[in-house]
Amino acid sequence: xxxxVGDLRLRNRVLLAPMSGVSDRPFREIADLAxxxxxxxxxxxxxxxxxxxxxxxxxxxxxxxxxxxxxQLAGREPHWMAEGARIAxxxxxxxxxxxxxxxxRQVTGGYSGSALMRxxxxxxxxxxxTVAAARVPVTLKMRLGWDERLMNAPELARRAExxxxxxVTVHGRTRCQFYKGKANWxxxxxxxxxxxxxxxxxxxxVASLADIRAILRESGADGVMVGRGSYxxxxxxxxxxxxxxxxxxxxEPDLDREAELVERHHQAILSLYGHEHGNRIARKHLGxxxxxxxxxxxxxxxxxxGWRRRLTAETNNVKVxxxxxxxxxxxxxxxxxxx
Length: 339
Hints:
2 domains, eight-stranded parallel sheet
C-alpha cells in the first residue's frame, strides 16, 4: 500500500514527525537512510525564514541525498506564510507542511501552531495563502482541537481539503492536553470521515507495530507518523514500515549496524553544529539511546546510569565516540556469549 500527496507518492505508510530540537538534518538523514515514508523538518517560523534568521535557515537544510523533502512552516500572517512557502520550495522542498498542531506556549502565545484551531477562519487565510504561493503540494498537521470543548479538527480538515491541502495529519490530543494521558486514536476517525479524497495520517503514542495496527484500525487513517517513538533510534520509522508492509522500510538493524548508524549520526551532529555546540546537542540523543537499551533489557538501570554519566558529561568528542563504540562492543560481546 502507498500514499499519494498530490502527484507525489510516499515511500511507505510510516512517516517521521517534525520535532523541534530533534528532527534536524542529521536525524532526518538517518531516518531517510532507513527508508521512512517521509521525513519532515523541524518547525520553521515563516517570517524568520524570510528574514534569513540563521537557525531557521539551518532547519531547512536539505540532505545531500535522500527521497522526498518536506519543510514545515509555522506562522500567523498570510503574507509571511506565502513568503515562507516561496523560499521553502526554492530551497528544494518537495512538500510544504503547515503547523497548526504545536502546543508549546511560546508558539501558541504568538497565535501560531495549535492556537490557530481557535479561529478557523483565520487559519484558512494562512492555508489559502500558502497553497496559492506554492508550486508543490501543501499538507497540514493539527491536533484534535484546542481543548475538549473545541474539538474542531474534522471541520478544519474539511475546509483545508477544499482550499487545496493534499494531506492531513492529526495528533490524537487537544492542545490543552499537551502530551499528557493517552492519545485518542478513535477521535481521529471523525477527521477521516470529513475528508473526501486526500490521505489522513494518524499521530500520537506510536512506537510499535502493535501501536500502528491499533491506530490504523481505530482511526481509519491511511498511514501513521512516528514522533517520540523514534527518540534514540531515528531508523525506527523505517523498521516499523518493514514490519507493517512487505517490501517497505528496512529490517531492524543488529547491534553492529546500529553502532554504525549511531556513529554516523554523532559525526553529522558535530559537523553541522561544531564540536562545542554539537557536543551539547548530542547528549540528549545519547541519553535516549541508553534508555532504549534499558527498555530492551540490554542494560540494567545501574549500568545505564554509569554509561549516561560517561557519555553525556564528557566534553571531548573523541572520547565520546570511543565510549559509544565501547558500549556497543560490550553489548555485542554479551550478546555473543548469551547465544
